[in-house]
Amino acid sequence: MDILWFLIVGLVAGLIARAVVPGKDAMGLIPTVILGIVGSVVGGLLAVLLTDRKFDDFTPAKIFGSILGAIIALLVYRRMKK
User: Fold this and answer.
1) Contact, 17 vs 35, CB < 8 A?
2) How many structural domains compose the chain?
3) What pLDDT does residue 21 have?
4) Is the pLDDT of residue 14 over 70?
5) Could you tell me the residue range of the domain that residue 61 belongs to?
6) What is the DSSP string of 1-51?
């Protein structure tokens, strides 16, 4: 069940990141999920570094961190693509 939640949060974070960051991306569903998963990892690492705590629970702050991480990952992806 945890993997299913991980994929759902990844999809939502990826979709929101693509909607928030202006510009056109030729990504399908799978790359969007991967973007969200990478964003979750980036957001989780940032949260651990900034708060010096381990986040084990599923909280709204984790979703926000995943979205923020996905936005960062999308910007890095676009920069590397150029």
Assistant:
1) yes
2) 1
3) 86
4) yes
5) 2-81
6) -HHHHHHHHHHHHHHHHHHHS-S-----HHHHHHHHHHHHHHHHHHHHHHH
